[in-house]
Amino acid sequence: MLELREVTKKNGGKKALDSVSLSLPRGELVGLFGENGAGKTTLMKCVLGLVRHEGEILLDGKPVTYRNRESLSFGTSEHSFFPGLTAQGHREFFAAHFPRFSDRRFLGLMDFFALPLHKTLRTFSAGQKNQFEVILALSQGADYILLDEPFAGNDLFNREDFYKVLSSILEPQETVLLSTHLIEEVSGFLGRAVLLRGGRIVGDLSVQELEEEGTSLVGAVKERYHYRADRVGKAIGALTGEEDEP
User: Fold this and answer.
1) Domains of the chain
2) Mean of the per-residue pLDDT values of the chain
């Protein structure tokens, strides 16, 4: 289990995360949602030990250190690979450094995305680079896979097909924490949704329970964020001057 206990991250005088407590058991596909600046990326980077924070983060009851960090992987559109190395070179590097690296999954996903093995990563398009980040994160052999806006620059069909593949290939011990703004698109593949706002958790929802209540995930999210349906009409009126007409 991955546990966050009262995790706080301050940037200057502002709290990017404010006393966040969260438990992620093995075998879950969890969505992490929130507005821009809600703290989603910061939370993931705290888990990975990339930024300093207050509070505790435990992996199977132990602090995250170099001894157990291989149980965590990270896929992000920030691109953390070697741009001068080919995909095949990354395959060999990961196989040498991660004992549980899945060559079958790596090659299967490379084929799925139709990515070349023998071209350097700097020659890939932005969308292909993001796809490759996801492939590395899923092939490393980690039990907890953190994906932060993994498909920026990818078309709708690629994304939809990938979510179907993802939900089919995950092993029982693997947990995915997926941060995205595309809530409606991923709602059919998630078991749980964690909502962040202003660095705090404002919702931890079971998608199955929402379905049993006849509530969509998008509707539940809008309710938790106090979404105002009239804001679009008011903005158009203000921009066009129609609100001033008698």
Assistant:
1) 2-244 (3.40.50.300)
2) 88
